[in-house]
Design brief:
Number of strands: 11
Order of helices and strands: EEEEEEEHEHHEHEE
Helix content: 10-25%
Radius of gyration: 17 Å
Number of helices: 4
Distance between the termini: 36 Å
Largest sheet: 7 strands, mixed
Oligomer: single chain
Low-confidence stretches: 1-16, 38-59
Number of domains: 1
Strand content: 25-35%
Strand order of the largest sheet: 3-2-7-8-9-10-11
Mean pLDDT: 79
Amino acid sequence: MLAQKPKFTDSSPFTTWEPRVVEIAIDDPEPPILDSASANGKLLDEDIQPLECSDIAGSMPRPEIVRLEHPLFPNSALHFYPEVDFIWLSENVTPLAMTDLQRHYGSQLNNIQNIIVEEDVWDSDDILEILSGLQNIRLIRVWLESYRFHPGSKPRTREHYMKRATKLQERDQSILEGRVDSLVVYVDSDDNIYGGFRVTA
């Protein structure tokens, strides 16, 4: 099951946890909603690996928890760990959906620090407009696996991943500089990193 409660040790500081992935569920004509119970059937359990504290900042206290609540659907409120959890930007996410999300969640979206973006979404002309609704992003993971959902596509080799990541990075550094303050990494399903850079707003 994708949506899991992060695993903590009984005492603080803890040493490992498992991030959850929260999807922006879009079901017209209903407004978009943050949904931890689905990831569109796309992100496999093994695609998100447990993170070691040393990967982020060494030994850390238990992460802060916040409540994200849609005003029209209070029963859908979810507990969210900003330092740990990810928002999944799938191919269904559009600038209009992000505008609707911002209208309903307002400043709650400032709690979102980590996102996973499907390659097709990341490579679209709309990506800057989509990102504009997320003001506090610290980590962007570009998931180089959209090809898996294209009919007739062949598995990628390491060389293919490297070539794709290099091409995206050449574009991304210039368009993101001065717009976001984030670490951007290009990853596959096994969490291999094929490139990355840091930009500042």
